[in-house]
Amino acid sequence: MPLVSAAALRALALACVLLAPGLAAAHEGHDHGAEAPPAPVAAAPRAEAVSERFELVAVVAGEDLVLTLDRFVTNAPVPGAGIAVSLAGQPRRKAVETAPGTYRLPLPWPAGQTHSDLMVGVSEGGRTDILTLDFDLPEAPAATASTGDAAPTLAERFARQNPMATAAGGFLLGLAAVAMVRGRRTAPVLALLALATTLILGGTAFAHEGHDEDKSAGKAANVPLPAALTPGALERARRLPDGSVFVPKTLQRLLALRTDLTATGRVARTTELPGRIIADPNASGVVQSSVGGRLAPPAGGFPRLGTRVRRGDVLATVTPPVQAVDVSDMRQRQGELDQQIAILVRRVTRFERLSTTGAVAQTQLDDARSELDGLKDRRAALDAIRREPEALVAPVDGVVAETAAVAGAMAAPGTVVYRIVDPAKLWVEALSFSALAEGSAATARLGDGTSLALAYRGAGLADRNQAVPVQFAITGDASALRLGQFVTVLAPTGGERQGLPLPRGGLVRTEGGHLVYEHVSAERFVAHAVRADALDADRVLVADGLAPGRRIVVQGAELLDQIR
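and the corresponding structure tokens:
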């Protein structure tokens, strides 16, 4: 038994000697108590201030201070303002405008100063607003001694052990003790003791194996600090852990974010109707063939689509076909007319000779001449039927909207060869399932977001697909529209309701409903879920989820929602 105990002690001592240097080497230059500082919210030190008219953000950019000045309500840049910055004990400095709403001046505080209270005077429109900026710059931590100068104590080493390795080592030590008490062989006991010592004392080395620490780690010079914004650098927008969105002012300018204050109002009740673009019946028409025949172009050729024509212009000709039977009848009729004309010519010649002698009255001569002229006209008309085609003319002024003209094609009677439309006079026809306020103005919205102003023209009395057709005239510019284009008509139905009117650009559609973004601070936006209904082609009515007096993004909200 004494031999076993002595051998075990020698093995334990040898393991301690072999593993002790590794414990110190594993932790050299590595301090677990100091955690990396959290990432700064902004890319550079900044401060902000607001007044009733302005919103000011100041950012440290290298050796300069960059000031962005916007309208408080609309978030629009304020160009041409006078900005003066003053610091206690320092002369007042004026900022120079480098871009619309962006101003720059050298840093107004001494080098190494970490806290500064700036007084900023903003002059615009004959008024001056005083704003205060409170700057807290990052302070470098004091330099610490290298951890390699003092070796950790045994208690510190054991405090850094891996719990799993310690537990395993203790279990093996227990097995070794039992084996020694029962007088087991020496070799297994020594193996158990060596393995237990390795697990217990080597826990720290195993836990940190693979760490390649920088020799300069832990020095104050390498602690990450918020970097100043270099000239020309673009700060990055990000979504914060609380769900809000941080957008630097420089990026707000690129996204053209605009805001507006919400206010409660009473508006007319509206309904959405499906509609389409139609032509004004008084400013459009069709060109049809009254008789069947072969189409032929006029002297200048068939007019193209979009060609502007005037009323009475010849657009095409139709030559009616002549059947063989008709040709025989026409030749027989022509022969009869030629015979009658020849008889009347001789009679007129004879009456002219006799009228000089008084044998024939002048009235008989005049009657014969009139009858001869009538026969010649009938003969000429019969020839014209075979030779002259029908001319198709434009019924109104406008442009060619549709065409079916092809040279040589056979057109049946009533075929629409052209459709002429005045593009400046278009209507909208909608189908309504409820009564509308007669004579009231309405609006229409196209698929691309374009809005149209409409004037009520009338409603039908006959149902069409269980709905009543209602027609409106487009009062604005309709040059970019086309016939048959689908639109959404928002028409008043009478009565009023209360809510917060907002531009449609401020509403973001999501899978769960609608969102709006509130401008809570100069560079932070918060999303709110709201219940909104259509108000007109340009606005929506927020009925729930938002309070009045909030700054809501009304332009660029869709882009803001894409930031992650």
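(Above: one complete record from the training split.) Residues 324-357 form the longest helix (34 residues).
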